[in-house]
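re: ur question from yesterday

yeah so i grabbed the chain u mentioned. its 337 aa long if i counted rite. heres the sequnce exactly as i have it in my notes:
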Amino acid sequence: MDRFVCFFLDIRIPSGIIRVLSFLPDLERIVFMSSVSAADVSASVRSAFDFTVDKFPLFGPDNMPTDQYGLFRSDNGYLSGVKSISKQYVPHTTDDVCALVEAASVAFDGDLDLKCHWRNGHYVSINPTKEKRRSIFGTADNIWPRIMLRGGFDGKGFKATVAFQRDLCDNMSMLEQVEATSTSIRHSSNLRLKMDELIQTFEGLKAGWDNLAEVAANMQSRNVNQYEFIREVFADRMPSQDQLNLLALNPNAKIRAIKVWDNMIKAMVTRVNSEAVKSGRATGRKEISAWEAYNMVQGYVQHDAQAKAGFKDQFSRILRASNDRHVKIAAQLAMSA
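ran it thru and got these structure tokens back, copy pasting raw so excuse formatting
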């Protein structure tokens, strides 16, 4: 069943204040997507984000004035889940998003595909041509770059991150620990007037892609013990010694923590073996490459782990995995193996 938010909205107009009872769907569950070539990137972005985000004053009971403002979409109302803002805050515009995507298009030789998403902010996944693939193992385990552009309404401006898309498992991962793969872009009025600066920013991210591909190749060149890697990454989820002792005394005991742990390991081992078959690697190995180990954890979190409400669609799972602390631990371990 769809969830709705109900609220009263007071809007000041020249003749007074009107109060509107509004219902809107839970915005955390809404994603707008389009996949198009870069022939007209601005038109593609404007088509996906065909609304504005506007700032209006907030009022207390009996129309008491406050110094706080709220953000509202022009098509469906209040941005649920976004904190109130001050009078000085200026929300970015769709034209600002277009300027950034156009700058990325120039930096990456004007040949892009786009996917646009809305999750209480503008997200654009910018995909240079697949000819930029880098082979990590054989002919099947390849990666190619994606630029994730985020424009939230949390006062942090824009953020652009180089990610990789992996052919083998359709993982999309952001290793922000790698040098030059992430940059913040300060939002100021009319970003279009700063196109040269923006293009230079994305040129820098191209170097980040080279760094990312080198790190992936280095991870592939080193081996780790698959089970030790899992235990180190998920140390906080391991069954306690008391639980293991109880199982030793009563092998038929049903201990939830042990069952969850065993199912998680089974899912990750199955993932590694499935990808091994596709890529021409041997199956049933205890020793796997650090690259495989990292993608085992990242792929499990993105695709297999139970998702909370609002994180079940593909793009939301990508965001969840990119912020997951176990994925970040796995990245650190794999890069230092």
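noticed a couple things. The longest strand covers residues 141-152. also The two ends are 46 Å apart (CA to CA).
anyway ttyl
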